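Q: Can I see a sequence and its folded structure?
A: Here is a first one.
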Amino acid sequence: MQTKRIGNIILIQLSDTDSNIYLIDDMVIDTGTGFNFPRLYQIFKIYKKTFEDIKFIINTHAHFDHIGGNGFFPNAKIIMHKLDAPVLENGDSSTSYADFFGGQLKKRKVDMKVEEGFELNGLEVIHTPGHTPGSISLYNRKEKILFSGDLIFADGFGRTDLVGGNREDLMKSIEKIKGLEIEKLLPGHGEPVLKMVKERIEFLLKNEPEEV
């Protein structure tokens, strides 16, 4: 369990199986599996926050390790791309891979089913399919920060061998974000890239395996 402050963003890493959770004022980006309530509660306490303070959850995609903890935040509106929203609304434990993590996905309403161009609190939704059909990245144009979900990490790209994955779409999405001015890359797992982001992406592209 660890946290890291990046400007006004708090990166929370609960375990190897949880997604990164990003806390920004009254909003969280992704919520982990939901298996680590005590740890998350203690972290919120350290930062003088309560779960009730959170008004918005943005899920980068509908895999259980990113959405399983949505229920922790009773006052939050859930935001997800319209193509992935049915997984959560139907409680689809198979497509969400809740079964793989030893969990069960509870049906929850997605309050805002968004598309590319939607903006909230300075974050712009960019549709970046490939890992799932409704995967999104979130771009802060002013601060040149990209939250990339499971599209790209510090050391590689997202998987495309899961239900709904598509390698061709993923590579098109990588090309799309390459055109953005990015100074900080904050991925869905692992460590952030806080300098030379473009060079990192180019390196990964040159060294990508034939199958992702």
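Q: Show me another, different protein.
A: A second, unrelated one:
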Amino acid sequence: MRMVTIAIATILAMGQVPRADQEVLLIPQGFTGDIYILFRVPSGQPPAREGAARLYRIPPGGILATQELPNSGMSPVWKFWYESTQGERQPLGRIWTSAVRRTPENEAASAVEVFYPRHGRQQGTTQTPCDVEYDTYFIGTRAQAMNHDPFSGPRKLHDFLKTTSPCG
């Protein structure tokens, strides 16, 4: 009986957590690789909206610094688009939240998809004296995701932070 009570209390408590804002991510046509959205950067892009959704226009290098606060709440609805230089949009495929199994079907899949959405924080260092909070994704085919170097994204972020201060 105690376990049932705990389960019901947990479900009720979860119902009180607000839903996260919807997000629209516009990625340069043809881009593949790691994407970062850095939050609370005073010199970053001002918050942008498309209807009720947060709008993130990712620059060609794959790292967007924004003044926007992190998206809090449960289950954001993501819409990922490739955007051409003329503003035409093409939706990206499936969003993968877990590992891609190495199968012939996955090796051959040619659609560009979204992999491993996650939220992170890097503590301040001598080089970057403030904490950096970010969302990150990998954009590519399934074969690219399976062969992706897990350290390439953190290196990319490190290199960006060497030349751009998120602290204001």
